[in-house]
Amino acid sequence: MIKFYIETNEVAVPTFNSSGCYDIARKDEYQTMEIKIIKSTELKQKPKKGDSLKFGTIFTDHMFVMDYNKEGGWNNPQIIPYGDISIAPSAMVFHYGQEMFEGLKAYKGDDGRILLFRPLKNIERANQSNNRLCIPEIPEDIFLEALKRLVEIDQDWIPTEEGTSLYIRPFVIATDPFLGVRPSDTYKFIIILSPSGPYYPEGLNPVKIWVEDEYVRAVKGGIGYAKTGGNYVASMKAQEKAHAEGYSQVLWLDGIERKYIEEVGAMNIFFKVDGKVITPALSGSILPGVTRASVIELCREWGYPVEERRIDVEELYEAHKQGKLEEVWGTGTAAVISPVGLLRWKDHLMTINHGKIGELSQKLYDTVTGIQRGRIEDTHGWTVEVDSVLENV
Ligand SMILES: *Cc1c(COP(=O)(O)O)cnc(C)c1O
User: Fold this and answer.
1) What number does the ligand 1 atom closest to the CA of 231 have?
2) What SS3 state is found at 163?
3) Dist. CA 291 → ligand 1 center (Å)
4) CA atoms within 13 A on the CB side of 97
């Protein structure tokens, strides 16, 4: 067993706010937090070069685990061998879905550096989700240190081939053994890692998308902007329907009028119409994507007018009829940029750019992935290097 100490001046001390959720009061005094590291003695077989690395199927040797209780706040951070966990069948997460998750990636650059892409954005969003879901916020410095140290320990699992990366999945679950409905008093925060192959092994092929006008995913005032399992279970029925019709993903419309564009399954959506880039505004029912924010910044730098606003699906249909719907693409950590070749809305089929990837979509893909891998100079300060500190511990 090795002990590794991180220093932090943020300590989670729970207090109740008016809605009965926890707020984190921050103590200013200097504190030392210790991440205990227990290295696995039975290292698993790592995938070989050329293995397909289907998304989310292989997990590394270690995981990060931290507990929360009312008395101690977030405490007992540990990196331990990846394995099953034991929790009560009555744990609240199973019954009322109080859980939050995140998704980000680590890359190994050509120069051997290990880079995380905008992890602070994910940490900030995790705490926004936590806040909405009445889960106590996680101190940012502990969260970042946990990501770095876990990736450092399992760095030999980061695949290096084109289009591959190490997918990082942090999540929190409510663990009180209790069937009453209220926010839990205890939680587990866990981070697991999964090497993943290129999202599209055959290259950047445009996908077919079904515009859903029956089921809805989220409404304003609900949990649509939080990254949480509840939004995904709400989406599965429509996803099945779209699959049965031969479409790979669903494009959601707003939950009230079913006419304003929201987002795709696990991606935000962009349209290039008559030279302008348009994307739905963050109105509370869609996820504020890190890739979305990055793409907006890049497009503006390149001189494209970018509009974040309400988009009526009818407006898109009209633009398509007039030949002005030039490109459509989704943005998300998993695929980075996913070009859309066909949209189906009611009985209307809209083929985009002859079903081929557009020029701007390709440039965005090349630029974002280039920055992620350290091949293109990171002028925005988006990448965070995982430094080596554990060698001597
Ligand atoms: C995670 C997610 C996205 C994409 O966000 P990124 O930060 O770009 O990965 C978009 N929509 C939903 C519903 C998501 O869960």
Assistant:
1) 13
2) coil
3) 8
4) 11
Residue whose Cα lies nearest atom 14 of ligand 1: it is 266
Q: Are 295 and 336 in contact (CB under 8 A)?
A: no
CA–centroid distance, residue 357 to ligand 1 (Å): 21
Helix (H, G, I), strand (E, B) or coil at 79: strand
SS3 for 290? helix
- Summarised one tens digit per residue, pLDDT across range 307-332 is 999 999 999 999 999 999 999 999 99
**Does the C-beta of 125 come closer than 6 Å to ligand 1?**
no
Q: Is residue 249 lining ligand 1, measured as CB closer than 6 Å?
A: no
Hey, what domains does the chain have and what are their CATH numbers? 2-197 (3.30.470.10), 207-372 (3.20.10.10)
Give the C-alpha separation, 328 to 324, whole Å: 11
Using one digit for the tens of pLDDT, what is the confidence trace for 326-376?
999 999 999 999 999 999 999 999 999 999 999 999 999 999 999 999 999
Q: How far apart are the first and last CA of the chain?
A: 10
In this structure, is the dihedral angle defined by the CA atoms of residues 201, 125, 259 and 233, taken in order, positive or negative? positive
- With beta carbons less than 8 A apart as the criterion, state whether 99 and 132 touch: no
Q: How far is CA 192 from CA 68, 84, 150, 323, in A?
A: 18, 12, 9, 45
- Whether the per-residue pLDDT at 383 is higher than 70: the answer is yes
CB burial of 229-260 (b: ≥16 within 10 Å; e: otherwise) equals ebbeebbeebbeebeeeebbbbbbbbbeeeeb
| Residue of 121, 287, 298 to test ligand 1 pocket, by largest number of atoms within 8 Å of CB | 287
Chain centroid to Cα 176, Å, comes to 26
- Closest by alpha carbon to 174, among 295, 89, 288, 92? 92
Mean pLDDT of the chain: 91
pTM above 0.90, yes or no: yes
Distance (Å) from CA 121 to ligand 1 centroid? 12
